[in-house]
Design brief:
single chain; mainly alpha; five-stranded parallel beta sheet; binds zinc ion
Length: 382
């Protein structure tokens, strides 16, 4: 009861005290909104895009790929952002991306259809990286046993490791990333990740496996924080670019363009192209932790002027998944993990006390320090 009394929601967006460290000003406006207004909105050019900078960047990307089969790499999940980015990259900008898709065994058929339709119509070869499902299943089980909220680390890490693998293998210097201010400026609060380690870090992932069952992966490909955050960007000069931030668009426009051009089928909620993510974000996080990921997603749309706060509140008034859908999904997930529903429920009721896991953040930090001493800090600051 006391918790309910303390609940507070921002008066401008729909972020609230489910983020334990969120602060509010005297008008009840949260730090996220204030940061957006004072810093981000100018950088974003009020959503009008950065045409000149985009042209320069596209020229550089094309130049870097001269004589090569590809000039950039794009990981396509089938979600809205990466799909729209692929559309722009190939159709509007004339880039030649190496397109890969990670199939970790949890794809929903609609996502596979979307990925296929886009690649066929755009005439790009799709490289599908099919993961060893026994590896994925065992890893996911270990993460459920951690009790914390960062449960999708095995899939996230697999994706990051593929980006690193292909940029090394192909010698391509540009990674196209679908991150964008328009639909993602309000990120999930860091406080929601309590107990979890850095997703891009092999040491962390392996320590979770070691501490929860001791499974040794057979075919899973890892990357390290050092390689991902330091070696590739600063030594090999691989640049990750968020090109969606250079063009004006709204979420509605993204959907209508993709529907019209490719027969794309939009999902009910962001990340609902994947069965496990749908389960985690639509059921597990709200019911176990009280984290409704839609608050961040809708807040992004509200503060960028694509939706009113009232519309967002109306959506939030209903749960992400109905009771029936949740039940059905619960049974499917337990079945795919090859455990009973009772066992899965036992992880849902674990105490929210987390053990510590090893990670290699120190190596990455040390690397940056060394480079600063060597006078190469200019690149590091980029
Ligand atoms: Zn706010």
């Amino acid at each position: 009861m006391q918790r309910n009394n303390e609940h507070k929601m921002c008066t401008r967006c729909v972020m609230d005290t489910s983020d334990k460290i969120l602060k509010f000003d005297e008008n009840g406006v949260c730090t996220r909104c204030n940061e957006f207004e004072h810093r981000i909105v100018k950088e974003w050019n009020y959503g009008k895009g950065h045409e000149k900078e985009l042209k320069k960047l596209l020229d550089e990307i094309k130049k870097s790929g001269k004589g090569k089969k590809y000039d950039c790499i794009l990981g396509l999940s089938g979600g809205l952002d990466s799909s729209y980015l692929l559309h722009l990259a190939v159709k509007e900008w004339g880039l030649r991306p190496f397109v890969f898709h990670v199939d970790a065994g949890w794809n929903l058929p609609v996502a596979e259809k979307n990925v296929k339709r886009l690649c066929e119509k755009l005439n790009v070869d799709l490289h599908i990286e099919k993961m060893d499902f026994e590896d994925m299943r065992q890893m996911q089980l270990a993460f459920f046993k951690t009790g914390h909220a960062g449960l999708d680390a095995p899939q996230d890490h697999a994706f990051i490791a593929q980006v690193d693998k292909w940029s090394e293998k192909l010698g391509v210097k540009y990674i196209l990333n679908g991150y964008n201010i328009c639909t993602e400026i309000v990120a999930n609060p860091a406080s929601w990740n309590e107990g979890a380690g850095p997703t891009a870090d092999k040491t962390y992932i392996k320590d979770v496996l070691k501490k929860h069952g001791g499974y040794k992966t057979k075919n899973y490909i890892y990357t390290t924080g050092f390689k991902h955050k330091f070696w590739l960007p600063y030594v090999k000069g691989v640049k990750t670019v968020n090109l969606l931030n250079y063009v004006p668009f709204t979420k509605k426009e993204m959907i209508s363009t993709l529907e019209k051009e490719y027969g794309y089928e939009a999902y009910k909620q962001k990340h609902f192209e994947d069965l496990l993510t749908k389960f985690l974000e639509g059921y597990w996080l709200p019911t176990r932790f009280g984290y409704d990921i839609r608050k961040a997603q809708l807040s992004s749309l509200v503060i960028t002027g694509q939706m009113t706060r009232e519309e967002a509140l109306e959506i939030l008034a209903k749960p992400s998944l109905s009771e029936e859908e949740s039940k059905e999904l619960f049974a499917i997930v337990a079945n795919k993990l090859q455990i009973s529903e009772e066992e899965l429920m036992s992880y849902h009721s674990l105490p929210k006390k987390y053990i510590k896991y090893r990670n290699n953040n120190w190596a990455f930090q040390l690397g940056i320090k060394l480079y600063t001493i060597l006078g190469l800090d200019k690149r590091i600051r980029q």
